[in-house]
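Lab notebook page, bench 4
Experiment: in silico fold of construct C2
Operator: M.H.
Input chain length: 204 residues
Purpose: comparison with the prior construct
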Amino acid sequence: MRAGRNPEDVRLVAVTKFVDASRIKEAFDAGLRVFGESRVQEAQEKVAELQGLNIQWHMVGHLQKNKAKAAVGIFDLIHSLDSVELMELVNKYADKLGKVQKGLIQVKLSEEESKFGISENEVEELLEAAKGMKNLKIEGLMTIPPFFDDPELARPYYRRLKELGDRFGLPELSMGMTNDFEIAIEEGATMVRVGTAIFGERPE
């Protein structure tokens, strides 16, 4: 690997927004095992259709509080925790299901209004809150930088997330998408979220 890292240290999350279950099954048959969905309702339908397959489902889109119960019921990992209130709901519903929900804190490192996530300064507060939640395990951080035609411009954002992860001893870093995942891997990503490069262009 160009980044000088073991490929097994980086998981490919195949993002399946607007991809139907039959194409996900083809990707599964080709060897993919981790699939990421952006919308809870769309994910519920696909999870039901693909029951029985050894698939890990990840929530990679913004999670609304009113969808937290359903999300806990279907996702192995939630990438987009961005408030204490949301974490409390996830913890509550995981307790009712008798599971420990794994999650990542989404950090907003840009000034873009359209992006979700907390500021760097709020990470410690959320981690402290999580310590009292026995049914929620925070495993790392996630970020989405601005889109750049030149992926090299995303590097500082990924470097900052790695520094944050190291500061708090968080091993998982979900960062990098189709256009810049190689840069993200060089900067320490443990998960990259790739959709277009696998499934082609889809409607926004």
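Observations: The chain has one domain: 7-199. The mean pLDDT is 95.
Next step: discuss at group meeting.
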